[in-house]
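Below is one protein, fold included:
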Amino acid sequence: MLQEANLDVAFANYPQVNGQLDEVFSPDRKIKKHYERVFNHLSQFSLQEFRDLNEYAKKSSFDQGITFNVYSDKAQGVERIFPFDLFPRVIPAKEWEHIEKGLIQRNRALNLFLQDIYNEKKILKDDIVPKELIFSSKNYSKEMVDFVPYGGVYAHISGTDVIRHSDGEYYVLEDNIRVPSGVSYVLSNRMATKRILSNLFFESAVQPVVDYSEALSQVLKSVAPQGVEEPVCVVLTPGVYNSAYYEHSLLAMLMGMQLVEGRDLFVDKNFVYMKTIHGPQKVDVIYRRIDDVFIDPLVFRPDSVLGIPGLMAAYREGNVVLANAPGTGVADDKAVYTYVPEIIRYYLAEEPILKNVTTYRCDREDDFKYVMENLDKLVVKPVDESGGYGIFIGSRAPAEEREKFREIVKAQRRKYIAQPVMSLSTHATFIEESGGFEPRHIDLRTFSLTGLNKEYVCKGGLTRVALRRGELVVNSSQGGGSKDTWVLQD
């Protein structure tokens, strides 16, 4: 019976789709060399044994509180387990070296870009990036004008989404440098595979990810205000009802820092203090997991109960550091994304290591005309959304729906960009409904850190899986899952 057969038998009918790059199998259905050890080990399990391991992983996630909340029209605040697949994604050392160099290059350029557009504005004066594009971004913060954070670092934590196309090349799909999330799943996925597949893991020479929290701690301390020898750093969370609260609490615990809410902090004479049972304690660095508009009701939204009144004044006085800096979101605006190759050339005098996906800006006349004429072949995205919300895939929408969406884009052209449908690589994934392995599209959210004379890239990342057959949107909020990502040592 199939249920009693080993997994190698289950792979005998593994479907391959023409024109798509499968990470595990070559076009002639042979296992790629860097997957041989993993495949041979997993093939020893029967389907039932693998199901049992899969169930154990799910139960373990639930017991640890590794969940996320869904905020959509159909499900308001529904808490779910983030689906985890035990078959890890494997990246050879040479491929990872290319990705890592590209990420470091990109982060350097974006930090220089942020410093420039809030101060001298050279790139705008030189007409490399249109000034109207920057000043019309809802994430451009006037409160950051003529101010440079300590060390010149704006984006201390970056979450860059990378895909692999059918041509075998890696592309950056988007930058996330406002309040990037997801690294807790990287750490928890690794803990799960080390516990469940311990022999395989320790035989496979996998680069560690456990050092992320220590690297983050060092980066935060490195940007503390000048003269502070033993900085007090805290993690600022909106609270237990936030979709990423598990991550906030895990990182605070791993770094040995206090997890605080806005009500735990106050500002006095432009210094920030934390309330403790021993009295006020001065805070030097705040790793904020709260959006810009909520961090200070005296400057941004006056109805915010999540932030700290007076925080921006203390920040601009140099008495406290915020990571990431307010206003960084202007650099992950998906319309600004189209200029990142030029931004890299302008500030670093280098060619981009990682390519952008071809992108059309709907506020440009030629691009807009092309998008309107080819809506059935494109993916349209709002420039300021995340989590996979607002994405319109033209090829999957009926003609009537496309016509309605055309009118939406026409009314708000600055808000939308369009990209060709990228053929994301696929990976063998265990599908509970079918009881076997099937190819599913994946991407990779990478995590990079930048401090004062410090740069770090987590050697792995969050491989996100679109669990529905043929689906291209991998976000957890859209029903996606995840895999552990194994970067092999050289």
Q: What stands out?
A: The radius of gyration is 23 Å.
